[in-house]
Task: inverse folding
C-alpha cells in the first residue's frame, strides 16, 4: 500500500472549502451579476471582495473555528455574510427568524455562538433584542443603512471597512464543520445538524451536474436562505457563476413581476406558491427552463398547468437538513402513470436504499425505511451522540421516511414513520389520504393524522383548508374520499381550519394539530360511544 503523507502545502492546494466557490466564480465571471436584491445588483467581483473583507474581520475579532449565529431574511448582505463566515473557517449557524424568541434563544445558546449577524429590522423587535442582550456576544448588523443607529453593534459596512479584498489564507480541512443548521422542529425540540465543507460541497457539485446548471441561469430566491433547500440552490448557483434573485417574502404579484423582469430560468417553490402564481390566468413565463417543487406533492392538474405556462421541466427535489439537498429527483411529466408521492431516483452523489428494522436492504415493492449514504450526509447531531448513533445504524443514514421501489426504479414515498396511522389493525399512510383530499376542487390544503380512539386505537382525522369562496362541507369531503379510498382509510373526523401550522418552508407541524385538536377529538369519540 502506498503511504503518502500530505504536506501542509498539498493540503491547502487540494482543500475543499465553501468560500472558494464564490472566489473562483469571481475570477471567471467577475462582472456577471451574482445577486439581485431589489435595487442592489451585486457582481461576482463585489460579492467576492465584500465576503473576503468580512472574513478578515471575523478572523481578527473571533479567530477561526467558532460558531457565528445569523438572524437574517434574504438579502445581499446575508449572502455576503455567510460567505465571509465560510471564508474565515468559522461555522455558520443560520436560525429560522420566524421562530418565537424563546426558541431562537434556545438555538443560539445550544449552538454556543460567539457572535451573531442580525438584520437591523429584526433587532428592532424588543423580544429579540432582549434575547441578544442576554446572550452577551458581539453583534454584526446587516441592512443597517448608514449605521447611525446600530444599537451598539458593528454594522456589516463597518466590519468590511479598510480590510483586504483577498481570499483569507487559512487552512480549512474537508471535514471541518462549515455550518450548524437546526431541524425544522415539526415534532418538537430542534436538533443541531453539523455539516462539513465537504458534505455541502458534495451536494453543490451533484446539483450542478444533476440539474445541468450553467452560468447563464437565473435562479429564484423566494424560499428562506436560512433553510437548507434555498441555501443549497444559492450555493450551487454561485458555484457555476449563475445569478440568484432574492425576495424577502412571497407576494404573488411581486414574484410574477420579478420572474419576468429578471428573465428567470429556474424557479423553486412550494406547491402553494405555484398555485398562487398560476391563479392569474394571464401569467406565463417563457424564460423558465426548470420548475422545482419540494416539501409536498403537487396534484397532476397543477403539474399540467406549470408545464403549460411555466416550464415542461417540472421536477420534485428531496433532501433533509441532515442530507444536504438534493438527494432524489422525480420528473413528473416523464412518468405520468405514477402518482404525486413518487420521489424518483438519486443524484450521482447520493446512494439510496430501502431497509427493514434489522438492517436488511429490501427489494422492489417491499416497504421499509428510506436510507442514504454519500458525501452529502451530515457529520452528526451537535452535542447529541445518542441521536447521531441512532441515525447512522447499519452504515446508512436513516431518514425516518417509509418508502418502496416502484416501477422503473422510482422511489415511492409512503409516509413518515411517525405519521403512519394504525387504525383497526390496518396501516394508513397519511400522505395517501392527503393526496386524495388535495384532489378535491374546493380544497387548498390538507393535513391528515391519527388521533387516539377508544375503539380503533387511532382514527384517521383530516384538517382541511378550503379555497377562498369555495362551498364545501364535511359530507362532500367524505363522499369524495369514499370514491377513492378504502373504507378504513376514509377520515373519521373532518375539521375545516383557516390555516395549517407550518414551518418557514411549508412543512405542516402535525404535533401542533395533535395538541390543538386531540382533546376535541376525544370528546367527539365519547359522544359516539353508547352510554
Result:
Amino acid at each position: 500500500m502506498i503511504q503518502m503523507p500530505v504536506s501542509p502545502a498539498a493540503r491547502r492546494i487540494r482543500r475543499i472549502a465553501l468560500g472558494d466557490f464564490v472566489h473562483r466564480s469571481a475570477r471567471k465571471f467577475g462582472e456577471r451579476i451574482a445577486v439581485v436584491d431589489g435595487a442592489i445588483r451585486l457582481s461576482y467581483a463585489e460579492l467576492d471582495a465584500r465576503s473576503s473583507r468580512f472574513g478578515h474581520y471575523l478572523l481578527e475579532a473571533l479567530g477561526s473555528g467558532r460558531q457565528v449565529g445569523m438572524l437574517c431574511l434574504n438579502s445581499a448582505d446575508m449572502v455576503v455574510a455567510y460567505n465571509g463566515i465560510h471564508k474565515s473557517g468559522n461555522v455558520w449557524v443560520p436560525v429560522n427568524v420566524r421562530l418565537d424568541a424563546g426558541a431562537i434563544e434556545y438555538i443560539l445558546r445550544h449552538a454556543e455562538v460567539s457572535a451573531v449577524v442580525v438584520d437591523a429590522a429584526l433587532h428592532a423587535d424588543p423580544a429579540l433584542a432582549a434575547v441578544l442582550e442576554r446572550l452577551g456576544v458581539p453583534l454584526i448588523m446587516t441592512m443597517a443603512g448608514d449605521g447611525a443607529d446600530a444599537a451598539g453593534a458593528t454594522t456589516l459596512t463597518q466590519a468590511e471597512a479598510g480590510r483586504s479584498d483577498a481570499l483569507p489564507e487559512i487552512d480549512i480541512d474537508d471535514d471541518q464543520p462549515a455550518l450548524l443548521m437546526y431541524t425544522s422542529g415539526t415534532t418538537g425540540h430542534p436538533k443541531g445538524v453539523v455539516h462539513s465543507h465537504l458534505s455541502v460541497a458534495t451536494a453543490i457539485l451533484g446539483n450542478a451536474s444533476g440539474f445541468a446548471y450553467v452560468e447563464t441561469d437565473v435562479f429564484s430566491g423566494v424560499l428562506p436562505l436560512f433553510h437548507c433547500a434555498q441555501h443549497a440552490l444559492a450555493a450551487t448557483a454561485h458555484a457555476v457563476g449563475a445569478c440568484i434573485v432574492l425576495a424577502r417574502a412571497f407576494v404573488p404579484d411581486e414574484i410574477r413581476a420579478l420572474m419576468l423582469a429578471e428573465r428567470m430560468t429556474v424557479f423553486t417553490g412550494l406547491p402553494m406558491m405555484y398555485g398562487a402564481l398560476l391563479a392569474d390566468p394571464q401569467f406565463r413565463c417563457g424564460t423558465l427552463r426548470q420548475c422545482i417543487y419540494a416539501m409536498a406533492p403537487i396534484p397532476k392538474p397543477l403539474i399540467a398547468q406549470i408545464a403549460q405556462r411555466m416550464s415542461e421541466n417540472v421536477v420534485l427535489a428531496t433532501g433533509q437538513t441532515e442530507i444536504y439537498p438534493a438527494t432524489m429527483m422525480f420528473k413528473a411529466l416523464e412518468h405520468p402513470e405514477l402518482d404525486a408521492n413518487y420521489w424518483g431516483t438519486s443524484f450521482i452523489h447520493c446512494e439510496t436504499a430501502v431497509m427493514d428494522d434489522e438492517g436488511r436492504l429490501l427489494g422492489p415493492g417491499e416497504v421499509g425505511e428510506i436510507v442514504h449514504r454519500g458525501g452529502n450526509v451530515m457529520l452528526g447531531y451537535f452535542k447529541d451522540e445518542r441521536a447521531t448513533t441512532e441515525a447512522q445504524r447499519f452504515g446508512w443514514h436513516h431518514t425516518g421516511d417509509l418508502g418502496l421501489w416502484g416501477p422503473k426504479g422510482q422511489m415511492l414515498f409512503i409516509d413518515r414513520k411517525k405519521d403512519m396511522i394504525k387504525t383497526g389493525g390496518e396501516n394508513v399512510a397519511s400522505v395517501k389520504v392527503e393526496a386524495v383530499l388535495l384532489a378535491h376542487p374546493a380544497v387548498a390544503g390538507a393535513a391528515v393524522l391519527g388521533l387516539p380512539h377508544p375503539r380503533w386505537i387511532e382514527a384517521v382525522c383530516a384538517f382541511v383548508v378550503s379555497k377562498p369562496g369555495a362551498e364545501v362541507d364535511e359530507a362532500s369531503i367524505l363522499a369524495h374520499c369514499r370514491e377513492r379510498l378504502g373504507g378504513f382509510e376514509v377520515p373519521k373526523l373532518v375539521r375545516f381550519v383557516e390555516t395549517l401550522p407550518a414551518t418557514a418552508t411549508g412543512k405542516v407541524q402535525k404535533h401542533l394539530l395533535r395538541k390543538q385538536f386531540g382533546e376535541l377529538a376525544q370528546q367527539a369519540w365519547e359522544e359516539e360511544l353508547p352510554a
Notes: The CA atoms of residues 41 and 388 lie 41 Å apart. The first helix runs from residue 8 to 13. The longest strand covers residues 443-453.
